[in-house]
Amino acid sequence: MILETITIVIYTTALIFILIYALAQLNLLFNYVRAQNKKATPKKINWQNLDEVPFVTIQLPVYNEKYVMERLLKNIVLIDYPIERLEIQVLDDSTDDSLESTAALIAELKKTGTDIQHVLREKRTGFKAGALKEGLKSAKGEFIAIFDADFLPKPNWLKRTVPHFTSEKVGVVQTRWGHINRNYSLLTKVQAFALDAHFSLEQVGRNSHDHFINFNGTAGIWRKQCIIDAGNWEGDTLTEDLDLSYRAQLKGWKFAYLEDVETPAELPVVISAARSQQFRWNKGGAENFQKMKWRLLTSPTIPLKTKIHGLLHLLNSTMFLNIFIVAVLSIPMLYIKNEYAHLKVYFIVMSFFVISTLIFFVCYWFMFKKIYGGGVLNFFKYIGMFFTFFSIAMGFSLHNTIAILEGHFGKKSEFIRTPKFNINTLKDSWKGNVYLKDKISPHVIIEGLLMLYFGFGMYSAFVVGKEGDFGLFPFHLMLFLGFGYVFFKSLKTRS
């Protein structure tokens, strides 16, 4: 009974953490709904009077982006902003032939009068954080706008964001990500679904009540003084954006989030690219929890509720660990339930934790409805998308759990960029991309075994007890489909 007791304790603890996170999401939903009637009033700027127009530097940190550099540069020079107050820095750490083609593109753009600089470093120290820090040394701008290589800001982007620096304490203005290839595949639809929830529910829900939010690494603009005051960019975590965001807010800087300003970008279309991105984000989140938790908890100026939301924000990625624990232990728990009759009351109480799923279902519906509209037809579409998203998200749980554990235990790894593909339409193909790896990760094999494991879980529903027990059958079906999707997609596109 000792092993069974340990299993029950670990399983219950993981479920409690998931419920706490779900309740925090519900609180953010309440904040989000209340925030819909509040719209920030930007200050008025006479764009014809250069004395009123602040100088802006646009930084484009890039590394081996041969497929999207031309698209990026041709788009960025369309930004509508007084040319006398605008500088573009291409922070290029590339090691392939894109370095030469980018230099040629920049030379052509310079002939048009564009103030664009090709900033190179001898050593790629600190990865993206190091590149941003290097560019900051020579940046002329009072404000620093940052775009990754796959982002395509609209021409009026600066004129819609700069006016939101309404006071000297506003250090960052972040915009919502859009998705130019949302409908390319099931994988892109699922990624868009998850990101939409973050950029609507979470960012608005936190920001509207002065809780900490994060600059998302791109599609935002910093006050240069804020970056310097917060200690500048640091490359000791894989999510330098989250790191600097928390250091800035701990210093008293305010962030403004603009849900109504969309910045289109390209989603990863190959599962290996999505895996590398997920690994970096989840490991970086865990690293930042370890780096920031005591600074946040011991800050004398931060309200308790903001501290709680901040800790849960930093632990966002760690939810995958709890989900993975619940998933793996759910099959032993099925047998324990039907073996020990005296635990019947415990399992009745445990059914309460289904409320976590219901909370997520309600929260995500508000986000989905905001983008696609309400109505019965869209609600049924949402039901399908919700369970598809949760299945595939759970299929990533092993991969993300490994990243999370590495982050919490301090194992260092390189910043692995997400390869870009220049995918804009359903006709575009990712095949032939030179940045894709050919080898298959050992993790993929384990994911295949987990697919079979949860297949066994479905079989178990028919054989446990006297008449079977189908309470966990839908859960195991979702896990079977999720791990199966990740496994076969990874084999097909090479992980």
What is the strand and helix layout of this fold?
Blueprint: H1 2-35, E1 56-62, H2 69-76, E2 86-92, H3 98-110, E3 116-120, H4 127-138, E4 143-146, H5 157-161, E5 170-179, H6 186-207, E6 220-223, H7 224-229, H8 240-250, E7 254-265, H9 271-297, H10 304-314, H11 319-339, H12 344-350, H13 354-372, H14 376-395, H15 397-408, H16 442-463, H17 473-493
Parallel strand pairs: 1-2, 1-4, 2-3, 5-7
Antiparallel strand pairs: 4-6, 5-6
Rg measurement, Å:
24 Å
State the fourth-level CATH superfamily of the largest domain. Answer: Spore Coat Polysaccharide Biosynthesis Protein SpsA, Chain A
Question: Major sheet: size, sense and barrel closure?
Answer: 7 strands, mixed
User: How many domain units?
Assistant: 2
**How many separate helices?**
17
Describe it:
The chain is α/β, with parallel strands linked by helices and 495 residues long. It folds into 2 domains: 207 residues, no CATH class; 224 residues, Spore Coat Polysaccharide Biosynthesis Protein SpsA, Chain A (Alpha-Beta Complex), CATH 3.90.550.10. 55% of the residues lie in helices and 10% in strands. It contains 17 helices and 7 strands. It has a 7-stranded mixed β-sheet, with helices on both faces. β1, α2 and β2 form a beta-alpha-beta unit. It is globular.
